[in-house]
From TrEMBL:
SUPFAM superfamilies: Bet v1-like. GO terms for molecular function: cholesterol binding; cholesterol transfer activity. Gene3D superfamilies: 3.30.530.20. InterPro entries: StARD5/6, START-like_dom_sf, START_lipid-bd_dom. It holds the Pfam family START. Keywords: Lipid transport, Lipid-binding, Transport. Residues 1-156 form the START domain. The lineage of its organism: Eukaryota, Metazoa, Chordata, Craniata, Vertebrata. The gene is Stard5. This is STAR5 protein.
């Protein structure tokens, strides 16, 4: 989990190579080739008219959190094992897509939540196997490379 958090910090600090691919008035999505796997990294950014704490409540990875209510791509989120107050092993499921052509997915990740001195909040995760969460029938087991979210306070 700590390695995933550090990898996300490296992506955050390195502005090189990101190319814009989609943008609305609220969100800009960029991509760049990954140095870890044959594919691309994607980054979405936006500024919300809310306090960082209120935004964090909507995105933080906790069981019973708000993300399953607003994110159509997250069907369920459960904690398999709480390792500490900030680190846990979690299972996330996604619904089928494209008229059920794409099967539901499940992801098992080790997740860390951090808060930094400047008020930035971060969740970082990466794939892990856990004996209490073998692959479930009717789901395709997905694999996450280091991924996560930052909630960064901005002036005003």
């Amino acid at each position: 989990a700590e390695a995933a958090a550090e990898q996300l910090q490296l992506y955050r600090r390195d502005p090189e190579g990101w190319r814009g691919c989609r943008s609305t008035g609220e969100v800009a999505v960029s991509w760049r080739p990954s140095s870890e796997f044959a594919g691309n990294l994607y980054k979405g950014q936006g500024i919300l008219p809310a306090s960082p704490q209120n935004v964090w409540e909507c995105i933080k990875p906790v069981a019973g959190g708000l993300r399953t209510k607003w994110d159509q791509n997250v069907k369920d989120f459960e904690v398999i094992e709480a390792i500490s107050d900030t680190v846990s092993v979690c299972r996330t499921t996604t619904p089928s897509a494209c008229m059920r052509i794409i099967s539901p997915r499940e992801f098992v990740d080790v997740v860390v939540m951090k808060q930094y001195e400047d008020g930035t909040m971060q969740s970082a995760a990466t794939n892990v196997e856990h004996p209490l969460c073998p692959p479930q029938p009717n789901f395709v087991r997905g694999f996450n490379y280091p991924c996560g979210c930052f909630c960064i306070p901005v002036p005003g």
